[in-house]
Specification:
The structure holds two protein chains of two kinds.
Chain A (H helix, E strand, L loop, with lengths): L1 H19 L2 H38 L2 H6 L15 H32 L2 H14 L4 H19 L11 H25 L3 H9 L4 H12 L1 H17 L2 H6 L18 H10 L7 H35 L1
Chain B lengths: L1 H24 L2 H32 L6 H4 L15 H32 L5 H14 L3 H15 L6 H25 L3 H9 L4 H30 L2 H5 L20 H10 L3 H32 L4
Helix pairs in contact in B: 2-12, 4-7, 4-9, 4-11, 5-7, 6-7, 7-9, 8-9, 9-12, 11-12
The chains are: A mainly alpha, B mainly alpha.
Protein backbone atom coordinates (compact mmCIF):
# COMPACT_ATOMS: atom_id res chain seq x y z
CA UNK A 1 0.00 0.00 0.00
CA UNK A 2 2.50 2.50 1.25
CA UNK A 3 5.01 1.69 -1.47
CA UNK A 4 2.44 2.09 -4.21
CA UNK A 5 1.38 5.55 -2.94
CA UNK A 6 4.95 6.73 -2.68
CA UNK A 7 5.55 5.39 -6.17
CA UNK A 8 2.56 7.28 -7.47
CA UNK A 9 3.69 10.42 -5.65
CA UNK A 10 7.19 10.31 -7.09
CA UNK A 11 5.77 9.63 -10.54
CA UNK A 12 3.54 12.70 -10.25
CA UNK A 13 6.51 14.66 -8.96
CA UNK A 14 8.70 13.74 -11.90
CA UNK A 15 5.84 14.50 -14.28
CA UNK A 16 5.57 17.98 -12.78
CA UNK A 17 9.28 18.49 -13.02
CA UNK A 18 9.24 17.38 -16.62
CA UNK A 19 6.44 19.85 -17.23
CA UNK A 20 8.56 22.68 -15.86
CA UNK A 21 11.47 21.81 -18.08
CA UNK A 22 9.60 22.02 -21.37
CA UNK A 23 11.90 23.07 -24.20
CA UNK A 24 9.68 26.05 -25.06
CA UNK A 25 10.05 27.54 -21.60
CA UNK A 26 13.82 27.27 -21.46
CA UNK A 27 14.18 28.65 -25.00
CA UNK A 28 11.96 31.54 -24.05
CA UNK A 29 14.05 32.31 -21.01
CA UNK A 30 17.24 32.40 -23.09
CA UNK A 31 15.52 34.78 -25.50
CA UNK A 32 14.33 37.04 -22.68
CA UNK A 33 17.78 37.22 -21.11
CA UNK A 34 19.28 38.00 -24.51
CA UNK A 35 16.82 40.89 -24.96
CA UNK A 36 17.59 42.23 -21.50
CA UNK A 37 21.31 42.09 -22.27
CA UNK A 38 20.84 44.49 -25.22
CA UNK A 39 20.58 47.42 -22.82
CA UNK A 40 23.74 46.28 -21.00
CA UNK A 41 25.48 46.03 -24.36
CA UNK A 42 24.32 49.56 -25.15
CA UNK A 43 25.97 50.96 -22.04
CA UNK A 44 29.15 48.99 -22.68
CA UNK A 45 29.08 50.18 -26.31
CA UNK A 46 28.75 53.80 -25.20
CA UNK A 47 31.67 53.46 -22.80
CA UNK A 48 33.87 51.76 -25.42
CA UNK A 49 32.92 54.30 -28.09
CA UNK A 50 33.86 57.13 -25.71
CA UNK A 51 36.93 55.71 -23.99
CA UNK A 52 39.14 54.73 -26.92
CA UNK A 53 39.19 58.09 -28.77
CA UNK A 54 39.26 59.94 -25.44
CA UNK A 55 42.48 58.15 -24.49
CA UNK A 56 43.86 59.08 -27.91
CA UNK A 57 42.86 62.68 -27.25
CA UNK A 58 44.57 62.83 -23.87
CA UNK A 59 47.77 61.43 -25.30
CA UNK A 60 48.10 64.69 -27.24
CA UNK A 61 46.37 67.14 -24.91
CA UNK A 62 47.11 67.16 -21.21
CA UNK A 63 44.21 66.59 -18.83
CA UNK A 64 45.15 69.78 -16.98
CA UNK A 65 44.90 71.87 -20.16
CA UNK A 66 41.55 70.26 -20.98
CA UNK A 67 40.05 70.97 -17.55
CA UNK A 68 41.55 74.40 -16.85
CA UNK A 69 42.04 75.90 -20.33
CA UNK A 70 39.88 78.94 -21.10
CA UNK A 71 39.89 78.65 -24.88
CA UNK A 72 38.42 75.94 -27.11
CA UNK A 73 39.53 76.43 -30.71
CA UNK A 74 39.93 73.09 -32.50
CA UNK A 75 38.99 74.61 -35.88
CA UNK A 76 41.38 77.57 -35.62
CA UNK A 77 44.98 77.63 -36.88
CA UNK A 78 46.08 78.24 -33.28
CA UNK A 79 44.51 75.20 -31.63
CA UNK A 80 43.58 75.24 -27.96
CA UNK A 81 41.71 72.54 -26.08
CA UNK A 82 40.42 74.03 -22.83
CA UNK A 83 36.87 72.83 -22.21
CA UNK A 84 35.84 75.59 -19.78
CA UNK A 85 34.15 77.84 -22.42
CA UNK A 86 31.88 74.93 -23.41
CA UNK A 87 31.11 74.10 -19.78
CA UNK A 88 30.43 77.75 -18.93
CA UNK A 89 27.98 78.11 -21.84
CA UNK A 90 26.25 74.88 -20.82
CA UNK A 91 25.89 76.13 -17.24
CA UNK A 92 24.59 79.54 -18.37
CA UNK A 93 21.90 78.03 -20.60
CA UNK A 94 20.95 75.52 -17.91
CA UNK A 95 20.74 78.33 -15.35
CA UNK A 96 18.44 80.44 -17.52
CA UNK A 97 16.31 77.41 -18.34
CA UNK A 98 15.88 76.46 -14.68
CA UNK A 99 15.11 80.03 -13.61
CA UNK A 100 12.13 79.82 -15.94
CA UNK A 101 11.15 76.19 -15.69
CA UNK A 102 11.31 75.56 -11.94
CA UNK A 103 8.87 78.30 -10.78
CA UNK A 104 6.52 77.78 -13.72
CA UNK A 105 6.65 73.99 -13.47
CA UNK A 106 6.20 73.91 -9.69
CA UNK A 107 3.45 76.53 -9.79
CA UNK A 108 1.60 74.56 -12.46
CA UNK A 109 2.00 71.37 -10.43
CA UNK A 110 0.70 73.01 -7.23
CA UNK A 111 -2.27 74.46 -9.09
CA UNK A 112 -3.11 71.15 -10.76
CA UNK A 113 -2.65 69.10 -7.61
CA UNK A 114 -4.21 71.39 -4.97
CA UNK A 115 -6.51 73.90 -6.65
CA UNK A 116 -7.81 72.67 -10.00
CA UNK A 117 -11.05 70.75 -9.87
CA UNK A 118 -10.82 67.10 -10.93
CA UNK A 119 -12.40 67.72 -14.30
CA UNK A 120 -9.89 70.46 -15.21
CA UNK A 121 -7.06 68.24 -14.06
CA UNK A 122 -8.35 65.37 -16.14
CA UNK A 123 -8.23 67.58 -19.24
CA UNK A 124 -4.96 69.39 -18.49
CA UNK A 125 -2.79 66.42 -17.46
CA UNK A 126 -2.94 64.70 -20.88
CA UNK A 127 -2.32 68.05 -22.59
CA UNK A 128 0.84 68.51 -20.54
CA UNK A 129 1.97 65.02 -21.47
CA UNK A 130 1.19 65.81 -25.09
CA UNK A 131 3.26 68.99 -25.02
CA UNK A 132 6.20 67.15 -23.44
CA UNK A 133 6.49 65.35 -26.78
CA UNK A 134 7.14 68.40 -28.98
CA UNK A 135 10.47 67.74 -30.78
CA UNK A 136 13.34 69.97 -29.66
CA UNK A 137 14.15 71.11 -33.19
CA UNK A 138 10.81 72.95 -33.03
CA UNK A 139 11.89 74.84 -29.90
CA UNK A 140 15.14 75.79 -31.62
CA UNK A 141 13.21 77.14 -34.59
CA UNK A 142 10.81 79.28 -32.54
CA UNK A 143 13.67 80.53 -30.35
CA UNK A 144 15.63 81.79 -33.34
CA UNK A 145 12.81 83.11 -35.52
CA UNK A 146 10.02 84.11 -33.11
CA UNK A 147 11.36 84.71 -29.59
CA UNK A 148 14.66 86.38 -30.41
CA UNK A 149 13.24 89.05 -32.80
CA UNK A 150 10.70 89.88 -30.05
CA UNK A 151 13.44 90.12 -27.46
CA UNK A 152 15.54 92.36 -29.71
CA UNK A 153 12.56 94.59 -30.44
CA UNK A 154 11.60 95.04 -26.79
CA UNK A 155 15.13 95.34 -25.43
CA UNK A 156 15.36 98.73 -23.64
CA UNK A 157 19.00 99.55 -24.44
CA UNK A 158 20.95 99.62 -27.69
CA UNK A 159 23.31 96.74 -26.96
CA UNK A 160 20.57 94.14 -27.24
CA UNK A 161 20.91 90.39 -27.62
CA UNK A 162 22.88 88.94 -30.54
CA UNK A 163 21.27 86.99 -33.42
CA UNK A 164 22.10 83.79 -31.58
CA UNK A 165 22.46 84.05 -27.81
CA UNK A 166 22.43 81.97 -24.65
CA UNK A 167 19.50 83.84 -23.11
CA UNK A 168 17.07 82.93 -25.86
CA UNK A 169 18.30 79.34 -26.00
CA UNK A 170 17.81 79.16 -22.22
CA UNK A 171 14.30 80.62 -22.40
CA UNK A 172 13.25 78.15 -25.10
CA UNK A 173 14.78 75.32 -23.11
CA UNK A 174 12.93 76.50 -20.00
CA UNK A 175 9.62 76.37 -21.86
CA UNK A 176 10.58 72.91 -23.10
CA UNK A 177 11.31 71.58 -19.59
CA UNK A 178 8.17 72.98 -17.88
CA UNK A 179 5.93 70.04 -18.86
CA UNK A 180 8.51 67.54 -17.55
CA UNK A 181 8.89 69.28 -14.19
CA UNK A 182 5.15 69.95 -13.87
CA UNK A 183 4.20 66.38 -14.68
CA UNK A 184 6.65 64.63 -12.34
CA UNK A 185 6.10 67.09 -9.46
CA UNK A 186 2.35 66.73 -9.82
CA UNK A 187 2.69 62.95 -9.62
CA UNK A 188 4.62 63.20 -6.38
CA UNK A 189 2.20 65.77 -4.92
CA UNK A 190 -0.71 63.50 -5.81
CA UNK A 191 1.07 60.71 -3.92
CA UNK A 192 1.01 62.72 -0.66
CA UNK A 193 -1.65 61.03 1.51
CA UNK A 194 -4.90 62.93 1.98
CA UNK A 195 -4.66 62.46 5.74
CA UNK A 196 -1.66 64.81 5.93
CA UNK A 197 -3.69 67.57 4.25
CA UNK A 198 -6.73 66.94 6.42
CA UNK A 199 -4.59 67.00 9.54
CA UNK A 200 -3.29 70.41 8.58
CA UNK A 201 -6.77 71.71 7.79
CA UNK A 202 -7.95 70.45 11.18
CA UNK A 203 -5.29 72.68 12.72
CA UNK A 204 -6.91 75.62 10.91
CA UNK A 205 -4.35 75.90 8.13
CA UNK A 206 -5.34 77.78 5.01
CA UNK A 207 -5.07 76.22 1.57
CA UNK A 208 -1.86 78.12 0.86
CA UNK A 209 -0.31 76.91 4.09
CA UNK A 210 -1.29 73.33 3.32
CA UNK A 211 0.20 73.62 -0.17
CA UNK A 212 3.46 75.26 0.79
CA UNK A 213 4.12 73.79 4.24
CA UNK A 214 2.63 70.30 3.99
CA UNK A 215 2.29 69.12 0.40
CA UNK A 216 5.48 70.60 -1.05
CA UNK A 217 7.76 69.38 1.77
CA UNK A 218 6.13 65.95 1.73
CA UNK A 219 6.63 65.71 -2.04
CA UNK A 220 10.13 67.19 -1.88
CA UNK A 221 12.09 64.18 -3.07
CA UNK A 222 9.85 63.87 -6.12
CA UNK A 223 10.20 67.59 -6.80
CA UNK A 224 13.99 67.41 -6.46
CA UNK A 225 14.02 64.41 -8.80
CA UNK A 226 11.97 66.40 -11.32
CA UNK A 227 14.34 69.37 -11.11
CA UNK A 228 17.43 67.16 -11.41
CA UNK A 229 15.88 65.46 -14.43
CA UNK A 230 15.23 68.93 -15.84
CA UNK A 231 18.90 69.86 -15.31
CA UNK A 232 19.98 66.63 -16.94
CA UNK A 233 17.76 67.32 -19.96
CA UNK A 234 19.03 70.90 -20.22
CA UNK A 235 22.68 69.84 -20.06
CA UNK A 236 22.16 67.16 -22.70
CA UNK A 237 19.82 69.12 -24.97
CA UNK A 238 21.36 69.65 -28.38
CA UNK A 239 19.08 71.11 -31.03
CA UNK A 240 17.99 74.30 -29.26
CA UNK A 241 21.53 75.39 -28.42
CA UNK A 242 22.90 74.37 -31.80
CA UNK A 243 20.25 76.43 -33.61
CA UNK A 244 19.82 79.42 -31.29
CA UNK A 245 22.74 79.42 -28.85
CA UNK A 246 25.66 80.53 -31.00
CA UNK A 247 29.10 79.09 -31.76
CA UNK A 248 31.73 81.18 -29.91
CA UNK A 249 34.10 79.02 -27.92
CA UNK A 250 37.48 80.79 -28.03
CA UNK A 251 36.83 82.48 -24.69
CA UNK A 252 34.54 82.09 -21.70
CA UNK A 253 31.29 83.94 -22.36
CA UNK A 254 29.45 84.88 -19.18
CA UNK A 255 27.05 87.43 -20.68
CA UNK A 256 23.90 85.51 -21.70
CA UNK A 257 23.16 88.12 -24.38
CA UNK A 258 26.10 86.83 -26.39
CA UNK A 259 26.23 83.56 -28.26
CA UNK A 260 28.45 80.70 -27.16
CA UNK A 261 28.81 77.00 -27.94
CA UNK A 262 27.72 74.50 -25.29
CA UNK A 263 29.24 71.03 -25.08
CA UNK A 264 26.42 69.53 -27.12
CA UNK A 265 26.43 72.37 -29.66
CA UNK A 266 30.13 71.83 -30.26
CA UNK A 267 29.64 68.09 -30.81
CA UNK A 268 26.74 68.67 -33.20
CA UNK A 269 28.53 71.42 -35.11
CA UNK A 270 31.86 69.78 -35.64
CA UNK A 271 30.38 66.42 -36.53
CA UNK A 272 28.03 67.88 -39.13
CA UNK A 273 31.15 68.92 -41.07
CA UNK A 274 33.70 66.55 -42.55
CA UNK A 275 36.33 65.55 -40.02
CA UNK A 276 38.97 62.91 -40.77
CA UNK A 277 38.72 59.85 -38.52
CA UNK A 278 41.55 59.61 -36.01
CA UNK A 279 42.43 63.31 -36.15
CA UNK A 280 42.66 65.29 -32.95
CA UNK A 281 39.43 67.14 -33.84
CA UNK A 282 37.62 63.84 -34.31
CA UNK A 283 38.88 62.64 -30.93
CA UNK A 284 37.93 65.92 -29.25
CA UNK A 285 34.25 65.18 -30.03
CA UNK A 286 34.55 62.02 -27.97
CA UNK A 287 36.45 63.72 -25.14
CA UNK A 288 33.69 66.33 -24.78
CA UNK A 289 31.12 63.52 -25.14
CA UNK A 290 32.79 61.61 -22.31
CA UNK A 291 32.63 64.68 -20.04
CA UNK A 292 28.96 65.17 -20.93
CA UNK A 293 28.25 61.50 -20.22
CA UNK A 294 29.92 61.73 -16.80
CA UNK A 295 27.95 64.87 -15.85
CA UNK A 296 24.57 63.45 -16.87
CA UNK A 297 25.49 60.11 -15.26
CA UNK A 298 26.00 61.86 -11.91
CA UNK A 299 22.75 63.82 -12.30
CA UNK A 300 20.81 60.66 -13.19
CA UNK A 301 22.21 58.87 -10.15
CA UNK A 302 20.89 61.65 -7.89
CA UNK A 303 17.52 61.66 -9.66
CA UNK A 304 17.10 57.86 -9.48
CA UNK A 305 17.93 57.88 -5.77
CA UNK A 306 15.42 60.69 -5.10
CA UNK A 307 12.60 58.99 -7.02
CA UNK A 308 13.26 55.79 -5.12
CA UNK A 309 13.02 57.59 -1.80
CA UNK A 310 9.70 59.21 -2.66
CA UNK A 311 8.32 55.86 -3.80
CA UNK A 312 9.40 54.18 -0.58
CA UNK A 313 7.63 56.66 1.65
CA UNK A 314 4.06 56.38 0.47
CA UNK A 315 3.58 53.22 -1.57
CA UNK B 1 -43.08 75.46 18.44
CA UNK B 2 -39.58 74.52 19.42
CA UNK B 3 -38.49 73.67 15.89
CA UNK B 4 -38.82 77.18 14.41
CA UNK B 5 -36.96 78.70 17.37
CA UNK B 6 -34.11 76.31 16.90
CA UNK B 7 -33.84 77.18 13.23
CA UNK B 8 -33.95 80.90 13.91
CA UNK B 9 -31.27 80.41 16.51
CA UNK B 10 -28.99 78.33 14.36
CA UNK B 11 -29.42 80.21 11.11
CA UNK B 12 -27.60 83.42 12.08
CA UNK B 13 -24.98 81.28 13.78
CA UNK B 14 -24.29 79.15 10.73
CA UNK B 15 -24.33 82.10 8.39
CA UNK B 16 -21.93 83.93 10.71
CA UNK B 17 -19.53 81.01 10.75
CA UNK B 18 -20.03 80.73 6.97
CA UNK B 19 -19.03 84.37 6.71
CA UNK B 20 -16.00 83.86 8.86
CA UNK B 21 -14.99 80.91 6.71
CA UNK B 22 -15.47 82.83 3.47
CA UNK B 23 -13.50 85.71 4.92
CA UNK B 24 -10.70 83.41 5.81
CA UNK B 25 -10.74 81.87 2.32
CA UNK B 26 -10.56 85.24 0.61
CA UNK B 27 -7.55 86.58 2.49
CA UNK B 28 -5.51 88.64 0.03
CA UNK B 29 -2.46 86.42 0.47
CA UNK B 30 -4.48 83.32 -0.28
CA UNK B 31 -6.05 84.80 -3.37
CA UNK B 32 -2.72 86.12 -4.62
CA UNK B 33 -1.10 82.70 -4.15
CA UNK B 34 -3.88 80.94 -5.98
CA UNK B 35 -3.71 83.44 -8.83
CA UNK B 36 0.08 83.13 -8.97
CA UNK B 37 -0.13 79.35 -9.29
CA UNK B 38 -2.81 79.69 -11.93
CA UNK B 39 -0.66 82.26 -13.75
CA UNK B 40 2.26 79.81 -13.85
CA UNK B 41 0.11 77.30 -15.68
CA UNK B 42 -1.35 79.91 -18.03
CA UNK B 43 2.02 81.52 -18.84
CA UNK B 44 3.85 78.26 -19.46
CA UNK B 45 1.23 76.74 -21.68
CA UNK B 46 0.00 79.99 -23.16
CA UNK B 47 3.50 80.80 -24.44
CA UNK B 48 3.87 77.32 -25.83
CA UNK B 49 0.47 77.47 -27.53
CA UNK B 50 1.28 80.92 -28.96
CA UNK B 51 4.59 79.66 -30.34
CA UNK B 52 3.00 76.63 -31.97
CA UNK B 53 0.32 78.85 -33.49
CA UNK B 54 3.06 81.16 -34.78
CA UNK B 55 4.73 78.20 -36.52
CA UNK B 56 1.41 77.27 -38.10
CA UNK B 57 0.88 80.82 -39.41
CA UNK B 58 4.48 81.05 -40.62
CA UNK B 59 4.26 77.82 -42.55
CA UNK B 60 0.67 78.28 -43.75
CA UNK B 61 1.63 79.08 -47.37
CA UNK B 62 3.64 75.88 -47.63
CA UNK B 63 0.98 73.57 -46.26
CA UNK B 64 -0.09 71.93 -49.50
CA UNK B 65 0.70 68.82 -51.50
CA UNK B 66 4.10 70.20 -52.56
CA UNK B 67 5.32 69.38 -49.06
CA UNK B 68 5.07 65.62 -49.60
CA UNK B 69 5.23 65.30 -53.39
CA UNK B 70 8.38 67.35 -54.02
CA UNK B 71 12.01 66.88 -53.05
CA UNK B 72 14.09 69.34 -51.01
CA UNK B 73 16.59 71.50 -52.86
CA UNK B 74 19.70 73.48 -52.02
CA UNK B 75 18.90 76.13 -54.65
CA UNK B 76 16.86 79.13 -53.50
CA UNK B 77 15.63 79.77 -57.07
CA UNK B 78 13.93 76.36 -57.21
CA UNK B 79 12.63 76.49 -53.66
CA UNK B 80 9.09 77.36 -54.73
CA UNK B 81 8.61 73.87 -56.12
CA UNK B 82 10.40 72.13 -53.29
CA UNK B 83 9.07 69.94 -50.50
CA UNK B 84 10.30 67.37 -48.04
CA UNK B 85 9.29 64.07 -49.65
CA UNK B 86 12.66 62.37 -49.18
CA UNK B 87 12.66 63.39 -45.50
CA UNK B 88 9.12 62.12 -44.95
CA UNK B 89 9.87 58.79 -46.63
CA UNK B 90 13.16 58.58 -44.71
CA UNK B 91 11.32 59.14 -41.43
CA UNK B 92 8.77 56.44 -42.32
CA UNK B 93 11.58 53.98 -43.17
CA UNK B 94 13.44 54.71 -39.96
CA UNK B 95 10.39 54.55 -37.75
CA UNK B 96 9.19 51.25 -39.21
CA UNK B 97 12.63 49.77 -38.60
CA UNK B 98 12.72 51.19 -35.07
CA UNK B 99 9.36 49.54 -34.39
CA UNK B 100 10.69 46.20 -35.71
CA UNK B 101 13.93 46.37 -33.72
CA UNK B 102 12.97 48.16 -30.54
CA UNK B 103 9.50 46.88 -29.63
CA UNK B 104 10.30 43.12 -29.47
CA UNK B 105 13.55 43.72 -27.56
CA UNK B 106 11.87 46.18 -25.21
CA UNK B 107 8.86 44.00 -24.43
CA UNK B 108 10.98 40.85 -23.96
CA UNK B 109 13.38 42.72 -21.63
CA UNK B 110 10.46 43.95 -19.58
CA UNK B 111 8.99 40.43 -19.35
CA UNK B 112 12.34 39.15 -18.14
CA UNK B 113 12.66 41.87 -15.50
CA UNK B 114 9.10 41.57 -14.22
CA UNK B 115 8.31 37.85 -14.53
CA UNK B 116 11.58 35.92 -14.55
CA UNK B 117 14.27 37.98 -12.83
CA UNK B 118 14.98 37.47 -9.14
CA UNK B 119 15.08 41.03 -7.84
CA UNK B 120 17.33 40.19 -4.93
CA UNK B 121 20.21 39.23 -7.24
CA UNK B 122 22.80 41.97 -7.75
CA UNK B 123 22.99 41.49 -11.52
CA UNK B 124 19.26 42.00 -11.96
CA UNK B 125 19.40 45.15 -9.84
CA UNK B 126 22.31 46.37 -11.91
CA UNK B 127 20.30 45.66 -15.06
CA UNK B 128 17.47 47.75 -13.70
CA UNK B 129 19.73 50.66 -12.69
CA UNK B 130 21.41 50.46 -16.07
CA UNK B 131 18.07 50.90 -17.85
CA UNK B 132 17.08 53.82 -15.62
CA UNK B 133 20.41 55.48 -16.33
CA UNK B 134 20.17 54.88 -20.08
CA UNK B 135 16.80 56.65 -20.04
CA UNK B 136 18.63 59.81 -18.93
CA UNK B 137 21.64 59.66 -21.26
CA UNK B 138 21.56 62.63 -23.69
CA UNK B 139 20.50 61.63 -27.19
CA UNK B 140 23.66 63.05 -28.73
CA UNK B 141 25.69 60.46 -26.78
CA UNK B 142 23.73 57.77 -28.62
CA UNK B 143 24.83 59.52 -31.80
CA UNK B 144 28.45 59.11 -30.67
CA UNK B 145 27.76 55.42 -29.98
CA UNK B 146 26.39 55.12 -33.51
CA UNK B 147 29.34 56.97 -35.01
CA UNK B 148 32.07 55.08 -33.13
CA UNK B 149 30.63 51.57 -32.93
CA UNK B 150 27.78 50.99 -35.38
CA UNK B 151 28.82 53.14 -38.35
CA UNK B 152 32.57 52.63 -38.14
CA UNK B 153 33.51 49.57 -36.04
CA UNK B 154 30.62 47.41 -37.34
CA UNK B 155 31.00 49.02 -40.76
CA UNK B 156 27.31 49.75 -41.36
CA UNK B 157 28.18 53.28 -42.52
CA UNK B 158 25.84 56.27 -42.59
CA UNK B 159 22.74 54.36 -43.69
CA UNK B 160 19.09 53.93 -42.82
CA UNK B 161 19.83 50.84 -40.74
CA UNK B 162 22.46 52.65 -38.65
CA UNK B 163 20.00 55.44 -37.90
CA UNK B 164 17.28 52.92 -37.02
CA UNK B 165 19.56 50.95 -34.67
CA UNK B 166 20.74 54.11 -32.90
CA UNK B 167 17.20 55.46 -32.42
CA UNK B 168 16.02 52.00 -31.29
CA UNK B 169 18.65 51.90 -28.55
CA UNK B 170 17.74 55.49 -27.63
CA UNK B 171 14.04 54.77 -27.02
CA UNK B 172 14.49 51.22 -25.73
CA UNK B 173 14.38 52.33 -22.05
CA UNK B 174 11.06 54.09 -22.67
CA UNK B 175 9.50 50.89 -24.02
CA UNK B 176 10.99 48.76 -21.23
CA UNK B 177 9.84 51.06 -18.43
CA UNK B 178 6.31 51.45 -19.83
CA UNK B 179 5.95 47.71 -20.45
CA UNK B 180 7.17 46.89 -16.95
CA UNK B 181 4.59 49.19 -15.43
CA UNK B 182 1.84 47.65 -17.56
CA UNK B 183 2.89 44.11 -16.58
CA UNK B 184 3.17 45.04 -12.92
CA UNK B 185 -0.39 46.34 -12.97
CA UNK B 186 -1.75 42.87 -13.83
CA UNK B 187 -2.84 41.37 -10.49
CA UNK B 188 -1.09 38.29 -9.08
CA UNK B 189 -4.43 36.48 -8.76
CA UNK B 190 -4.61 36.14 -12.56
CA UNK B 191 -1.22 34.44 -12.60
CA UNK B 192 -2.11 32.17 -9.69
CA UNK B 193 -5.37 31.14 -11.36
CA UNK B 194 -3.47 30.32 -14.52
CA UNK B 195 -0.88 28.22 -12.66
CA UNK B 196 -3.66 26.47 -10.77
CA UNK B 197 -5.10 25.34 -14.11
CA UNK B 198 -1.77 23.74 -14.94
CA UNK B 199 -0.34 26.40 -17.22
CA UNK B 200 3.41 26.74 -17.48
CA UNK B 201 5.17 30.00 -16.77
CA UNK B 202 5.41 30.99 -20.42
CA UNK B 203 1.78 29.99 -21.08
CA UNK B 204 0.75 32.21 -18.17
CA UNK B 205 2.84 35.12 -19.36
CA UNK B 206 1.94 34.88 -23.04
CA UNK B 207 -1.78 34.05 -22.72
CA UNK B 208 -2.81 35.87 -19.52
CA UNK B 209 -0.37 38.59 -18.49
CA UNK B 210 0.61 40.04 -21.88
CA UNK B 211 -2.93 40.34 -23.32
CA UNK B 212 -4.02 42.19 -20.18
CA UNK B 213 -1.04 44.52 -20.43
CA UNK B 214 -1.49 45.35 -24.12
CA UNK B 215 -3.00 48.86 -23.66
CA UNK B 216 -0.13 49.97 -21.41
CA UNK B 217 2.45 48.46 -23.75
CA UNK B 218 0.81 50.09 -26.77
CA UNK B 219 0.84 53.50 -25.08
CA UNK B 220 4.50 53.24 -24.13
CA UNK B 221 5.45 51.98 -27.58
CA UNK B 222 3.66 54.76 -29.43
CA UNK B 223 5.21 57.41 -27.15
CA UNK B 224 8.64 55.87 -27.75
CA UNK B 225 8.18 55.85 -31.53
CA UNK B 226 6.97 59.44 -31.54
CA UNK B 227 10.05 60.44 -29.57
CA UNK B 228 12.24 58.66 -32.12
CA UNK B 229 10.51 60.54 -34.95
CA UNK B 230 11.37 63.90 -33.41
CA UNK B 231 15.01 63.17 -32.54
CA UNK B 232 17.56 65.07 -34.61
CA UNK B 233 20.72 65.21 -32.47
CA UNK B 234 21.95 61.62 -32.90
CA UNK B 235 21.36 61.77 -36.65
CA UNK B 236 23.39 64.98 -36.94
CA UNK B 237 26.36 63.21 -35.37
CA UNK B 238 25.73 60.39 -37.84
CA UNK B 239 26.35 62.83 -40.65
CA UNK B 240 22.83 63.12 -42.02
CA UNK B 241 23.03 66.85 -42.74
CA UNK B 242 22.89 67.13 -46.53
CA UNK B 243 20.27 67.74 -49.17
CA UNK B 244 19.18 64.25 -50.15
CA UNK B 245 16.89 64.29 -53.16
CA UNK B 246 16.05 60.61 -53.38
CA UNK B 247 13.95 58.28 -51.27
CA UNK B 248 15.75 55.47 -49.44
CA UNK B 249 15.42 52.16 -51.33
CA UNK B 250 16.99 49.73 -48.89
CA UNK B 251 18.63 49.25 -45.51
CA UNK B 252 22.01 50.39 -46.83
CA UNK B 253 20.67 53.48 -48.56
CA UNK B 254 21.51 57.08 -47.70
CA UNK B 255 18.68 59.00 -46.03
CA UNK B 256 17.42 62.17 -44.53
CA UNK B 257 14.65 62.55 -41.93
CA UNK B 258 12.12 65.26 -41.09
CA UNK B 259 13.85 66.82 -38.05
CA UNK B 260 17.20 66.75 -39.86
CA UNK B 261 15.70 68.34 -42.97
CA UNK B 262 14.15 71.05 -40.79
CA UNK B 263 17.53 71.71 -39.17
CA UNK B 264 19.14 71.96 -42.62
CA UNK B 265 16.52 74.51 -43.71
CA UNK B 266 17.04 76.52 -40.51
CA UNK B 267 20.80 76.80 -41.10
CA UNK B 268 20.07 78.55 -44.43
CA UNK B 269 19.55 82.25 -43.91
CA UNK B 270 17.05 83.00 -46.73
CA UNK B 271 13.48 83.60 -45.57
CA UNK B 272 12.10 81.14 -48.14
CA UNK B 273 13.88 78.39 -46.25
CA UNK B 274 12.38 79.62 -42.97
CA UNK B 275 8.92 79.33 -44.44
CA UNK B 276 9.56 75.83 -45.76
CA UNK B 277 11.03 74.87 -42.37
CA UNK B 278 7.82 76.08 -40.69
CA UNK B 279 5.74 74.01 -43.12
CA UNK B 280 7.85 70.92 -42.44
CA UNK B 281 7.58 71.54 -38.67
CA UNK B 282 3.78 71.59 -38.92
CA UNK B 283 3.96 68.24 -40.73
CA UNK B 284 6.32 66.83 -38.08
CA UNK B 285 4.18 68.17 -35.23
CA UNK B 286 1.03 66.77 -36.82
CA UNK B 287 2.60 63.29 -36.93
CA UNK B 288 4.11 63.44 -33.43
CA UNK B 289 1.13 65.01 -31.66
CA UNK B 290 -1.30 62.66 -33.44
CA UNK B 291 0.72 59.67 -32.23
CA UNK B 292 0.91 61.02 -28.68
CA UNK B 293 -2.83 61.70 -28.66
CA UNK B 294 -3.52 58.13 -29.79
CA UNK B 295 -1.21 56.86 -27.05
CA UNK B 296 -2.90 58.89 -24.33
CA UNK B 297 -6.35 57.96 -25.67
CA UNK B 298 -5.49 54.26 -25.69
CA UNK B 299 -4.28 54.49 -22.11
CA UNK B 300 -7.29 56.37 -20.81
CA UNK B 301 -9.83 54.35 -22.77
CA UNK B 302 -8.59 50.76 -22.75
CA UNK B 303 -6.45 50.40 -19.68
CA UNK B 304 -8.05 47.97 -17.27
CA UNK B 305 -8.55 49.03 -13.68
CA UNK B 306 -8.31 45.94 -11.51
Amino acid sequence: MSTSTSNAGSAAGSALRRGRRRPVDSTVKVLLVAAALVSVATTIGIVIALVQPTIGFFQQVSVVEFITGTSWTPTFAQKAYGVLPLVAATLTVTGVALTIAVPLGLGSAIYLSEYANPRTRKVLKPIIELLAGVPTVVYGFVALFALNPLLQKWWPTDDGPAFQNLLIAGIAMGIMIVPTIASISEDSMAAVPRSLREGAYALASTKMQVSTRVVVPAAMSGIVAAVVLGISRAVGETMIVTIAGGLTSDRIVLNPLEGAATMTAFIANISSGDIPVGSLDYDSVFAVGALLFLITFALNAVSIRMVRRFREVYE
Amino acid sequence: MSTPTTTTETRPDSSASGNALTQRRSRPGEVAFRLAMQACLLIAFGVLAALLTWVLVKGWNRLDSRLWTEMPTGLVSRLDGAGVQSALVGTLWIISLVALICLPIGVLSAIYLEEYADNTRWYNRLLELNIQNLAGVPSIIFGILGLGIIARALGLGFTVITAAIVLSLLVLPVVIIATREAIRAVPQSIRHASYALGATKWQTVSRQVLPSAVPGIATGSILALSRAIGEAAPLIVLGAVTFITFNPDGLDSGYTALPIQIYTFITRSQSEYTELAAGAIVLLLAIVLAMNSIAIFVRNRFEKRW
